[in-house]
Amino acid sequence: MILVNLLPHREAARKRRRENFYASLGAAAVAGGLIAGAAFAWLQTQISDQQDKNGLLQAEIKKLDNEIKEISTLQAEISALQARQKAVEDLQGDRNMPVHLLNELVRQMPDGIYVTNMKQEDRVVTLQGMAQSNERVSELLRNLGNNSPWLLKPELVEITAASVSLGPRDQRRVANFTLRVGIKRPTDDQKKDAPANAASPAAAKG
Fold it and tell me: Of 27, 126, 144, 182, which one has the fewest beta carbons inside 10 Å?
């Protein structure tokens, strides 16, 4: 016996395929939504973690800025203290300097020279005076440059010929001179000796 299907099977198959397509489409949409939600949640977590890290870094940066300000303040205070210490040392070194200066000038002044004017600016002394001859001035320059522990770098500024009257008929030829000479502080020698003294223990160890 032959059975003949008189139902619209093609229409039913088309309907099943359409239903399967819509079901697949819905499942894909749900899966896509879940994936997108998971990705969004992961990104939010990453952003939150990064914001926490940024907040921590900003807090550390502020702390470092405060420490840098404190260090700058300490450096300024150290510089001020060093300047005060240097000023005190210079004052202690300069306290007896006029006495040493006058003593040295008396010691190093050769015969035949006398000083008419003396002026000090900082650590440079300008001397003006008269000498019996140019040779006396040269001798004074040598004495100040080689024999004095308190004076250094004498420099002849000017020397001119002149005459002085010792009486109505007694005229003498003299040399008017101007020279400059530097003054040494005791602390200068101490500063020069300090590196040598510091190097001596190291050399002894070697």
Answer: 27
Task: Report the pLDDT averaged over residues 135-140.
Answer: 88
Calculate the dihedral angle through the C-alpha atoms of 87, 90, 91, 97, rounding to the nearest 10 degrees.
-160
Q: What whole-number distance in Å separates Cα of residue 175 and Cα of residue 163?
A: 8
Short-list 162, 100, 156, 148, CA closest to 126: 156
What residues contact 136, with CB distance under 8 A and at least 6 apart? Answer: 110, 111, 112, 113, 175
b (16+ CB within 10 A) / e for 40-76: eeeeeeeeeeeeeeeeeeeeeeeeeeeeeeeeeeeee
State how far the Cα of 68 lies from the Cα of 79, in Å rounded to an integer: 16
Q: List pLDDT tens digits, range 94-127.
A: 666 777 778 888 888 888 888 888 888 878 889 8
Give the per-residue pLDDT at 199: 46
Q: How long is the chain?
A: 206
Q: Is 4 a residue whose pLDDT tops 70?
A: no
Mapping DSSP onto H, E and C, the string for 110-125 reads CCCEEEEEEEEECCEE
Which amino acid, residue 156?
L
- Contact residues for 130 (Cβ-Cβ < 8 A; gap 6+): 113, 114, 116, 162, 164, 174, 175, 176, 177
